[in-house]
Amino acid sequence: MHPSSCDTFVALPPSTEGQRIIFGKNSDRPCDEVQEVVYFPARNYDAGEKLECTYIEIEQVAHTYAVVLSKPAWLWGAEMGANEHQVCIGNEAVWGRESADGDEALLGMDLVRLGLERADTAEKAVNVITGLLEKYGQGGSCTEDECYFTYHNSFLISDRKEAWLLDTSGKYWAAERVESGYRNISNQYGITTKIDREHPEMRGYAQSKGWWDGTSQFNFATVYSFTTTARIEAAGSRYYEGKKMLEKNNGHITAETMMDILRDKDSSINMEGMFMTTGSMVSVIPTNPALPGVHYFTATPDPERSVFKPFVFVKHINQLKETTSPSYGPDDPVKKKPRFQSKPNRKHELFVKHEVVEAIIDTHKDRGKKIIESMRQAEKEKMSEMEEILLHGVEEPDFLVNLFSKSVKAEMAAYSKS
Question: What domains are defined for the chain?
C-alpha cells in the first residue's frame, strides 16, 4: 500500500467572492483512525517550561494563542486548524530524494499546531515552523502502528491578507508567498522557481549531493523530488483535478465551492479505501480585520456523508466535549516504549453516532438519501446564519460560546431520529 493522501486549498481575492480568503483541507488518513476537533484557549507560561509534543519535549514559549484543531486523536499535533488571529494551516506528506527515515523528532502535524499556537500571521508561522525544524528536526512514525510510516512535509498557511506555501526536505526548506488568486497542494513538492524565502544552505546542500549543477535555474520541486513514483503520480492527478475545479470557479469561489471540491470522489480528493478522508475543514476569513472568521469542521469521515459545523473565536469557549476523544494519559500505548503495542478505543461521541448513520446510508438507499438531504439542509441553514456574522460581525459574543457544540448536538439529535 502506498498512501497518497491529503489535499489543501486556498483562494484569495480576486478569485473569491466578497473580499474573503477561503481555506480548505481534507485530511486523508488510515481508515480506522479517529479524528477529533478540539479547542485550546490562549495561555501564558513561566520561563523554562517544557512542552511535550508527540514524541519529543521542546521549550515552551511565554504565550500561546487560542486554537481550534482537527487532529488524529492519538497524537499531540494536528492535521489542520486555525487560531484566534485567523491564521490557518494544513500540511501534506511529501517524499523526495532525502530519506524521511530519521529518528523521532517533531511530526509535521506537531509543526502545524506549533505554528498556530505561536504565530499571529502566516509569514510568522513560516518563521516558527522553519525555526523549529532546524532546531529539532522532523521525524517519527506518522501512523498509530508498528509499521513505520514516515514522510517530510509541505504546508499551506494563510491569514487575512496572503498565503504561504512551505516545502521541506529534512531541515531544508523553501517558501513561496501567494498574494492573490488560488493555490492547491497535494503530496508533491509545489514550489518551482519562485522562491521568496529559503534555508540559507538549501541550494548548497543540493549541489553537494549532485542534484543540482549550481548554474542552471534552480527549481525546488525538480531538484528535491523523486524523478517518478506511483505515489507522486497519484498525487499529481488529484492536484490537477483540484486545480481545474478552482479554475472553473475562479472569481466566484465561496465556502460552498470549497466544500463541493472536498466532497468530490471522482477526483479522489474525497478519498476512499485503506486511506480515506477522516476529517475536513473549510475556513472563511474576511480581509476586513473588524470581521470574524468562520471555521467549519466535520469531525467525522467522508465529507460527502458529513456535516460541516461552524466555529467562531470568541472569549470563554467551552471544551468541545462531543468531538474530543477519550484520554489515556501516561498509560496511552503511544507514550509507552515500545510504542503502538495496542490501540485503545479513541472514538468520540459524534464519531460513534455518525458511524451508525454511515452504515444506514450504505445499506438502505432511499433512507440514506433522505438522511444526506437532511444533513445538507441543516448545513445550509447554519451557513446562512454565519453569513450574517461574516457580513456584520459579532454583536453578542456569548451566543457563540457553544456554537460548534450546539451544532454537533443538533447533528447527533438528527441521527437519533434517523
Answer: 7-417 (3.60.60.10)
How far apart are the C-alpha atoms of 78 and 127, rounded to whole Å?
Answer: 18
Q: What is the end-to-end Cα distance of the chain in Å, rounded?
A: 36
| pLDDT per residue as tens digits for the range 240-257 | 999 999 999 999 999 999
Q: Is 6 a catalytic residue?
A: yes
Distance CA(279)–CA(376), nearest Å, equals: 17
Contact 109, 142 (CB under 8 A): yes
Alpha-carbon gap, residue 187 to 167, rounded angstroms: 11
- Which triple of cell numbers denotes residue 265? 470522489
With H, G, I as helix, E, B as strand and everything else as coil, classify residue 411. Answer: helix
- Contact present, 37 and 301 (Cβ < 8 Å): no
325 Cα distance to chain centroid: 18
**Catalytic annotation, pick one of 6, 53, 88, 142:** 6
According to DSSP, the residues that pair with 168 across neighbouring strands are: 173
- Contact at 8 Å (CB) between 75 and 54? yes
Note the helical H segments in 201-252: 202-208, 220-224, 230-248
* 82 DSSP 8-state letter: E
pLDDT digits (tens, 9 = 90+) for 290-329: 999 999 999 999 999 999 999 999 999 999 999 999 999 9
pTM (predicted TM-score): 0.96
Tell me which H or E stretch contains 258. helix 255-262
